[in-house]
Structure formats: structure tokens, C-alpha cells
Description:
Largest sheet: 6 strands, mixed
CATH class of the largest domain: Alpha Beta
Radius of gyration: 26 Å
Strand content: 25-35%
CATH superfamily of the largest domain: von Willebrand factor, type A domain
Number of helices: 9
Distance between the termini: 44 Å
Structural class: alpha/beta
Helix content: 25-40%
Shape: globular
CATH topology of the largest domain: Rossmann fold
Number of strands: 16
Order of helices and strands: HEEEEEHHEEHEEHEHEHHEHEEEE
Amino acid sequence: MPPGIPAKALPFxxxxxxxxxxxxxEIQIRSNVELVVVPxxxxxxxxxxxxxxxxxxxxxxxxxxxxxxxxxxxxxxxLSAVILIDTGISEEALTRVKNSFPALMGAFADxxxxxxxxxxxxxxxxxxxxxDRALIERTFEKLASNATPSSxxxxxxxxxxxxxxxxxxxxxxxxQSAGKTIAPPTKALHxxxxxxxxxxxxxxxxxxxxxxxxxxxxxxSSLHSYDAALERLLLNxxxxxxxxxxxxxxxxxxxxxxSYSKATGGDAWxxxxxxxxxxxxxxxxxxxxxxxxxxxxxxxKRPAGRPVFREIxxxxxxxxxxxxxxxxxxxxx
Length: 333
């Protein structure tokens, strides 16, 4: 018997020791269970958000294996949003975007936090995350006054007829024949989205993490690839809501913006007027804020090395409805 401890106290100490060991084991077991959270948007046949669904209306699978939904929520949540403005679009489209800034501000609630970037050849942060409405307004005003369209757009006037171009840059007669070359255009679309995903990864899990991007969807010479940017979006649970500008019908069908939005459970629009663009802002934030949130404990074995992608599929027991959710997540070791 240890010195100084009465014999009658030993059973109590043994109980405490066993209880502590059991609690430690329980904590260890719980730490190995990963709760996967999947926000889901459901729209009816008219494109409106569907309400009134319950947990029993949903089924979810991971890597082809059915999972048990252990949590279900329909409570609106505040947003953490990164706004990306492509200043390399045409002058007409950029003017529409700048004139729509008041509507963009109005799409957010007071407790939403916003970060703002502009990008073209480079990515530039204009404002860190903030809920300060006055600061956000000043940032948009500064962007509206300083933003300039792509240098490759043609000015108006009698001499505005474009000549031959290479990669969007005009060919100057006599220069190319003399052995001169024109640097290819650059636009850092993937870099901008990658940086937005990185920043959103630091925000609270109690908020919905989203990126709103107004762009033509073109990318040239980014340091990051589409796959790298998408991986970062999925790792950090970020949804992309995009507004495609200066895009033909064919370009819309093949748009990188559409790919980002579909893969992350967001949405994509291609508004052709300022009124349509302004409507898309409120549609995006309303959709992001009001989603069905499904949670399940993954039955997949944790990877031993680097994170492994797990495909997710959500199904509804009701027909005639459209479901949007992220295509999967990366399970960490």
C-alpha cells in the first residue's frame, strides 16, 4: 500500500483510475470518427428553393457505400464570403459589374463577413474579412473608380476596326515579320480561386464558406491549375457561385466557372443585363444561407498517407427536384 494513503481509500482511487482510463479511451475512439457535413440545395421544377423536406427524404452514399445520416439541419447560417472581381473583362461588362456594387452589398446580412479581391494578370487583395458595412462600401467605391478593363479591348471611334490578332493581342504590321513576338495574355483565374479557398479555410466552421466571382471564365498562365484550385475548395468546404460575363452560348456550356460551381455545390449564372446580374447576387446568398445540411460518420478507412478523395452522392425520395451538393471531400489521415 502506498505510504500516507488509508486502506479504505484504495477502492475509491481505483474507481477514479478506471474511470479516467475509460474516458481517455472514449475520447480516443471519438477522435477517430470523422463527421462529414454536406450542405445540399434542393430546387423544385420551377427553379425555386424547395422547403419542407425532412431527414427521411434524403439518402447519402460515400464511394458507393450507403451512409447513415446522423445529423440534419435546416437552420440559416451566416456567411463567410470572398468576392472575386475580374477586371480583365470587356469595358461594357465591367461597367455593369461596377454599377451593380450596391446590389452586391445588399445581398449580404449584417453578420456576414466579406473579403474582396480583384484579379486580371495578378491577384490583389482589396479588403480582408470584415462585417464593417462602411468599410465594405468604401472598398467597392475604390474598386469602381480604379478598375480598368482589359488592355486588349478596342477603343471606339472611326479607327476602331480591329486588325488581325494573336491570342487577343493585335499584330503590328512589320513588327512580327522582323522577328518580334508578342507576349501571350495572362489571367490568373485559378490563382484567384485558389487564394479565396485558402483564406476561407481559416474561417469558422459555423459559417457557410462561399466564393462569389464575376468573370468571363478565361484563364491563362495561372501558377495553380484547375485541379489544384478545386482540391483546395473541396478541402476547405467552399462553394463557388459564379456570374459569367462576355460568354457565348458555346462558351457557357464549357465554362470553367460552371465546372467550379457544379463540383462544389454552388451555382452559376450568365446574366446578360445589369438587372439580371443584380438578381443573381441575392439568389446566391439566399441559396447558400438556406441549405439542408446532412451529417454522417464516414465508414471509409482513414488513409495512411496523404488525403484521399471520397465521392459523395445524395439522393431524394421525391421526384421532379434538382439537387446540388459538392461532389466529394478529401479524407485526411
